[in-house]
């Protein structure tokens, strides 16, 4: 297992380098001068101050040199300094709890509801429950989730007054239920459908027929022999979906006025504050890779053939 984990960890290194370079290139290739954006329309900075800022942030150096300096700082835990003079780590430190709580809330909704609905649909194939799940997930996939967000705010928050529609004053979990549920709809249909398909594949497996012939109860067969094996591909999807959920928080945090990492990116882009955008983007990539590493390890635990190279 240790060799398998090391192999997966080494595979993540080139992915980290490639994705962070793409983020860095995309951010600093954008038109506009960050120093001029910092100075404002009235250009309150003197030429000497502007030049000092360019030297401090290495803006006159080639892009590859600046990226190398960024990686050098990243190895020591330094994510750089925003053009406003505030350390990027400080910006992230004040915002990541909001994004984390939102992402975890959405992931829990997606995992629990997706697996539950998919299991019910798979075990009741061709019946009313199956039709409702398939029809409902089709409708959800056809409607943009930001539209659902605005409708949910109006109906659930304003008209019914059940849940907060803005800010984090109510705390967790109350303030995160509505945005978390809306964000969960981003991947919930895929989880439900994959669970259903996997359940159907395992219903006719030989080991299930053997368990039935032994006289095991329906509950034991479903939990031990059907659901456990069916969750192997679902676990992989749930892990990948967590990364997508974190990226989707940019829009949701804007709609629900949540001061998280997505909100920081949203406000930093118009200000050409590249260090903040790159720093937050790098953190999201690291979280995505960590989650995928954990999923790979869990995948190997659920199916030993994978870590032994047999599957």
TrEMBL record:
It is found in: Cell membrane. This is Peptide/nickel transport system permease protein/oligopeptide transport system permease protein. One of its GO terms (biological process) is transmembrane transport. GO terms for cellular component: plasma membrane. InterPro entries: BPD_transp_1_N (IPR045621), MetI-like (IPR000515), MetI-like_sf (IPR035906). Keywords: Cell membrane, Membrane, Transmembrane, Transmembrane helix, Transport. It comes from Nonomuraea solani. Residues 96-295 form the ABC transmembrane type-1 domain. Its main location: membrane. It comes from the Bacteria. Pfam families: BPD_transp_1 (PF00528), BPD_transp_1_N (PF19300). Belongs to the binding-protein-dependent transport system permease family. PANTHER family: DIPEPTIDE TRANSPORT SYSTEM PERMEASE PROTEIN DPPB-RELATED, DIPEPTIDE-TRANSPORT INTEGRAL MEMBRANE PROTEIN ABC TRANSPORTER DPPB-RELATED. It is a multi-pass membrane protein. SUPFAM superfamilies: MetI-like. The chain crosses the membrane at residues 9-30, 98-120, 132-158, 170-188, 231-256, 276-302.
């Amino acid at each position: 297992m240790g060799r398998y984990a090391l192999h997966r960890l080494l595979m993540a290194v080139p992915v980290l380098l490639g994705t962070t370079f793409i983020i860095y290139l995309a951010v600093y290739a954008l038109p506009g001068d960050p120093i001029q954006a910092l100075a404002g329309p009235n250009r309150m900075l003197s030429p000497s101050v502007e030049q000092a800022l360019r030297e401090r942030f290495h803006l006159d150096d080639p892009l590859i040199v600046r990226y190398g300096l960024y990686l050098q700082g990243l190895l020591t835990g330094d994510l750089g300094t925003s053009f406003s003079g505030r350390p990027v780590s400080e910006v992230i430190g004040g915002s990541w709890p909001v994004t984390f709580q939102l992402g975890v809330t959405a992931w829990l909704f997606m995992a629990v509801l997706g697996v539950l609905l998919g299991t019910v649909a798979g075990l009741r194939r061709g019946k009313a429950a199956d039709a409702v799940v398939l029809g409902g997930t089709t409708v959800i996939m056809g409607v943009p989730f930001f539209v659902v967000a605005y409708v949910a705010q109006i109906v659930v928050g304003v008209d019914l007054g059940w849940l907060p529609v803005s800010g984090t004053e109510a705390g967790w979990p109350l303030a995160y239920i509505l945005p978390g549920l809306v964000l969960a709809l981003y991947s919930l249909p895929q989880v439900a459908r994959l669970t259903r398909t996997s359940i159907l594949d395992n219903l006719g497996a030989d080991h299930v027929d053997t368990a039935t012939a032994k006289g095991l109860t329906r509950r034991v067969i479903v939990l031990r022999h059907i659901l456990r094996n069916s969750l192997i591909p679902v676990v992989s999807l749930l892990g990948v979906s967590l990364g997508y959920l974190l990226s989707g928080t940019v829009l949701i945090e804007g709609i629900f006025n949540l001061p998280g990492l997505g909100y920081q990116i949203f406000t930093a882009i118009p200000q050409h504050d590249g260090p903040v955008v790159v720093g937050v983007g790098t953190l999201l990539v690291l979280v995505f890779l960590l989650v995928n590493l954990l999923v790979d390890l869990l995948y190997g635990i659920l199916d030993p053939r994978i870590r032994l190279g047999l599957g």
